[in-house]
Amino acid sequence: MKKHPLIWSFILVLIGLSLQSCDKLGIDIPKDRTATGKWEYGAGERYPTSLRNFKYTFTVKDKSKLDITLESKDTDCALWLYNPLGQLVANRGNGRVLSMTIEGVGEGQYTVIAGTMQRGVSGNFSMTVKGANSDLNQIKSDTKALNDEWKTGGGGENFSYSPRNHWYTLDVTEDNSTIDLVQKSVNSDGSMWLFNSLGQQIFVVGRGRELGIIANINKGRYTVIAGTSGRGVRNATYNLSVNGQFTNLEKVVFQEANATGRIANGAGTYFASDSPRNEYHTFEVTDDNTSVDIIMESGDFDAIMWLFNPLGQVVASSNRGRSVGIVQGVSKGKYIISCGTDLQGSSGAYTLSVVGKFQNFAKRP
Predict the structure, then answer these.
(1) pLDDT for 14-51, tens place per residue?
(2) Among residues 150, 188, 197, which one has the least CA distance to residue 293?
(3) Whether residues 52 and 151 fall in one domain
(4) Residues 39/121, Cβ–Cβ less than 8 Å
(5) Are residues 331 and 313 in the same domain?
């Protein structure tokens, strides 16, 4: 028997009213959920927890089937699904269109991650999840990009604690979080370090124009050091990109002082750290548990330096050469630099550069 069109209209109205009532009562009906976005710098398939990927949570109320599709016209994708215990349920990769179907999914909050197959690529994407009882809730992150230059000569990969490298501090705001660091330099190989709030080094990478650190960490204050691979590299520019859940990204400010001098009839290396033939410079360290980086250079003679602490003890000495350096951990107090020659009787001009946390740098009469 053929049903009257008015009856069908009445049935459709009832269905619509039922759906509206479900919404008002907070009853979530499984339906298609869609998210779109753009990867500015994809994390790559090796790093699913990086928030350079797009990470979403959603709820499943009853055992059901999930169908997930990820598409990009710009780059190959990677796709992950995690259950409420944080365990990997399924993953797909290496394609512009990826899909997964999971039968009999249990109740709880799931996590789906839309990422790139290769690290460092960019592109737009669209993702659809069928069978979710809630909207896709994106886990937010922040990305900060900093451009700078090692003007005082890079500290080098063997001296992470050198203030000639650039230090940045940040506060991670979530436990079990991922920080993703990228350092790029077009004209010098770099090095990069990550230290925790106890001052312990937890990651280091080096010798490359593009470097990355991806670390799973907890709340707290961390220090990122962006440095050069070679010591003394000057006028090299870099970009540092920081991604994760963090606040208060700040560059640590160090002081720099420069001086020139001339040594006549140098005392030579042996037993000459306090010779009156040397030249002396003083400065006052203002912070405990910090470092000072000193470079002495001469085009006329092979140089050597000694560093005296506030007690008058030699705490460091340089090697011998036309360009020599001391990188030393120091505490508050007055320090003395003794500038001398390697060979007895040598003479000529020199330059001195000091970087650290100090004040009242002066040449001693």
Answers:
(1) 444 444 544 444 446 678 999 999 999 999 999 999 99
(2) 150
(3) no
(4) yes
(5) yes
